[in-house]
Design a protein that fits this description.
single chain, 493 residues, alpha/beta, FAD/NAD(P)-binding domain, five-stranded parallel β-sheet, 32% helix, 16% strand, Flavin-containing monooxygenase, flavoprotein, NADP
Length: 493
């Protein structure tokens, strides 16, 4: 019997899930709130490019067209590539566009007693459909406002972490955006503007952007390009990160099997652990060399932006960001001004930095426009999709806790459901593809999962390892430290 698979999201992970579902004979139903595919690549800043070479961002069975000869394709080129992939495998007819998923609810199968919570592989036999339950997906069409209910046998959540639910800091009463006489927006609003409208918005204005990751760097560069030193863009940074240019060659030192050989990996025997301990000074030394190289090339000490965490921790937590070409040149020229402060408040003329050294004495940074590039609440979006509070409690919204997913795909306590694309990698497209292949081989009965207790034990071991790899940012879902080893585990399964 043909089983229905509900896929929520038509970004990279959703397209891959749809393609592999079709390959295994399932009937995919993809729900997408936008009017097109592409996820975060649907609408980005004009200057946005791939952060990794295109060979790291390529479907295994659909190479880039030969006319895309740049190493780091632009947003438009990436979007066209995804469109071509969807058309080539005839995926569009399976996607319901402009359809927002209000919630999903699990209906227990007849094999479960009323007081027995459903778990993966009913009766612990490892069968993904062993519970004989169904998922009820409630959706609303955004144009017609019609609400529909769809029943499926399996759900794949491809929601992504970097869209939709904006993360905006909270402020004390009378110290927030309400006292500011200018305009305040989140980067998601800015990204949704047409390129021409975005340029008009920032032209001739004193712009302040908040954050220090990829989006804020791109916005600051656009402001610098449009306004130059006459109206410099101010960046407020709470936590500096290791932001580097794409052309720096040493990144490959951390993206190979030898570099992972120097790390203590979950499940390694005494000999491998001994060798990792013996050779760990080599990895530390390489990391220090890279840190010194970055600090020297970008004058981080001079501009006061040396991170407090090591470069190795940043790599292990997927926190190394590629800066746009010319970013630090604009800092030197003065068209981008960097300010470091743990917090800030609003003033009617702009923002006040809350630096402990001179708090209360600083003058406001006069601004016409303040843009928050402070990220998104991906964990919250994942929790809110469930109608059941019990399932919501399975996901932590704390930044200090990892999302408890076996193989970064399966929650042991939620049956007939997988999460794809939530955990980062240095090659996100490839990570999503191999996860989708793994998932649909599982659904096809090619292998079985261990019991719930063993899966939860595996999750705890991975969590413990992340604390070792990156004690400050271990709560971020990331396989950066061991992405090759992780892929090997999926292949072995």
């Amino acid at each position: 019997m043909e089983r229905k698979v509900g896929i929520i999201g038509a970004g990279i992970s959703g397209l891959l899930a749809c393609k592999y579902a079709l390959a295994k004979g399932y009937q995919p139903l993809v729900f997408e709130s936008r009017n097109t595919i592409g996820g975060v690549w649907t609408k980005t800043l004009e200057t946005t490019k791939l952060q990794t070479p295109k060979s790291f961002f390529q479907f295994s069975d659909f190479p880039w067209p030969s006319f895309v000869d740049t190493l780091y394709p632009s947003q438009t080129q990436v979007f066209d590539y995804l469109q071509s992939y969807a058309k080539h495998f005839d995926l569009l007819k399976h996607i319901r566009f402009n359809t927002n998923v209000l919630n999903i609810k699990y209906h227990k199968g007849p094999s479960h007693e009323e007081n027995n919570p459903p778990h993966w592989g009913g009766d612990h036999n490892g069968d993904p459909f062993g519970n004989k339950g169904k998922w009820i997906i409630t959706t609303q069409h955004l144009l017609t406002q019609i609400i529909e209910v769809t029943q499926v046998d399996f759900v794949v959540l491809c929601l992504g972490r970097f869209s939709d639910v904006a993360n905006i800091p909270e402020f004390p009463i009378d110290q927030g955006p309400e006292v500011f006489e200018g305009k305040v927006m989140h980067s998601i609003e800015y990204s949704n503007l047409d390129n021409e409208k975005a340029r008009e918005l920032i032209k001739g204005k004193r712009v302040t952007v908040v954050g220090f990751k990829k989006t804020v760097l791109d916005i600051a560069m656009e402001c610098a390009t449009v306004n130059g030193v006459k109206y410099p863009c101010t960046m407020i940074c709470r936590t500096p990160h290791w932001n580097v240019y794409q052309s720096i060659p040493w990144a490959n030192m951390f993206l190979n099997r030898f570099s992972e050989f120097l790390i203590h990996k979950p499940g390694d025997g005494p000999l491998l652990n001994f060798l990792a301990t013996l050779l760990s000074p080599l990895r530390w030394g390489i990391g220090k060399y890279v840190e010194n190289d970055i600090k020297k090339k970008h004058s981080l000490k001079k501009i006061g932006m040396v991170p407090n965490h090591s470069f190795l921790q940043a790599m292990n937590s997927c926190l190394v960001v590629t800066a746009p070409e010319g970013f630090y040149d604009n800092v030197d020229k003065g068209s981008i001004i960097l300010k470091r402060s743990p917090t800030f408040t609003f003033h009617k003329e702009g923002v006040l930095l809350c630096d402990d050294s001179d708090y209360g004495t600083t003058k406001p940074i006069k601004s016409d426009l303040v843009i928050f590039a402070t990220g998104f609440k991906g964990d919250q979006k994942l929790k809110d999709i469930f109608a059941s509070t019990n399932f919501q409690k399975c996901f932590s919204s704390s930044s200090n806790e990892t999302t408890p997913l076996y193989r970064e795909c399966i929650h042991p306590r939620i049956p007939q459901l997988a999460v794809i694309g939530f955990s980062e990698s240095f090659a996100n497209l490839f990570a999503s593809e191999i996860r989708c292949r793994w998932l649909f081989e599982l659904l096809d009965g090619k292998f079985k999962l261990p019991n719930i207790q063993e899966m939860e034990k595996d999750v705890l071991i991975w969590k413990k390892s992340m604390k070792t790899f990156s004690p400050k940012y271990y709560g971020r879902p990331c396989i950066g430290a061991l992405h090759i080893w992780y892929n090997d585990r999926l292949c072995k399964d």
